[in-house]
Design brief:
mainly alpha, elongated, 263 residues
Length: 263
């Protein structure tokens, strides 16, 4: 049975994905020969990670309806979100590689593609805590709260905090430090630190504009309108006489008009 499961995972590339993820965790250096030999596979690993992201979201909304945060993820089209994140990863990776190549131009004309592929493999790792944090914050938006801040006695707070710390930690350990180490082959530690900060600043700007054309496609209008109705009903902003299906229908129409005006 164990061999059958292993063959099934290997047939869809998940076994290699798991092995490369484990290797990244233990050695995030861009100088790792194993990574350099298999750098192109990082793109496939990110796609597999996003596919697992979508499957997990579908599973959560179907089989874990008692978890409000996971149930409200239906407001977002999971497949569109996966495509959005893939486009976002591509753009940020390209910006990082371009900025590194520009900063290293005095040392020779070269496209430092390792940076491009490295960001892809880190993205595959960071998707797990991102999914958890995304689900919690989305639920927070539709639970009737007037703020995204958490009370200390809110059971979601420690999970959101741990997820945020994991994302920050992964960014520092697996993006910032490896790029800084890469720069140190050419510059002093101090200059390398400054150049790495420049790279991450450029990446943050790219992240702001990445996939803007897809953002309107992320919302499942019907589920969003149902969530809006339930939220306002809970807060007492909707009269008891209001028909839910009528409210949802008008809401979908308004969202469609708003999307059309933004195009």
């Amino acid at each position: 049975m164990k061999e059958i499961i292993k063959e099934m995972l290997d047939s869809v590339g998940l076994l290699g994905f798991a092995q490369r993820t484990k290797a990244l965790i233990w050695n995030p250096s861009l100088n790792d020969p194993t990574f350099q030999e298999n750098k192109v596979k990082a793109v496939g690993d990110t796609i597999r990670s996003l596919a697992l992201f979508v499957i997990l979201a579908k599973f959560a909304t179907t089989y874990a309806p008692f978890l409000y945060e996971l149930r409200t993820i239906r407001v977002v089209d999971e497949i569109a979100l996966g495509i959005y994140l893939l486009v976002q990863t591509f753009m940020i990776s390209a910006v990082l590689a371009a900025v590194v190549s520009l900063l290293l131009f005095p040392k020779g004309l070269k496209l430092h593609s390792l940076i491009f592929y490295h960001n892809f493999r880190v993205k595959a790792l960071i998707n797990i805590p991102f999914f958890v944090l995304f689900s919690i914050m989305l639920g927070k938006m539709f639970d009737g709260s007037d703020t995204l801040d958490f009370e200390l006695d809110d059971g979601r707070f420690p999970v959101a905090l741990i997820s945020s710390l994991l994302i920050a930690g992964i960014t520092i350990k697996y993006i910032f430090l490896p790029i800084k180490e890469y720069f140190q082959k050419f510059y002093s530690p101090k200059i390398s630190f400054i150049m790495t900060c420049i790279c991450l600043f450029a990446a943050s700007i790219a992240n702001t504009y990445a996939g803007l054309g897809l953002s309107e496609k992320l919302i499942n209008k019907e589920e969003a309108c149902k969530a809006i109705f339930d939220m306002n009903k809970q807060k007492g902003n909707v009269p008891n006489s209001t028909d839910r299906s009528c409210f949802v229908g008008k809401c979908i129409e308004l969202l469609g008009q708003k999307e059309a005006r933004s195009q």
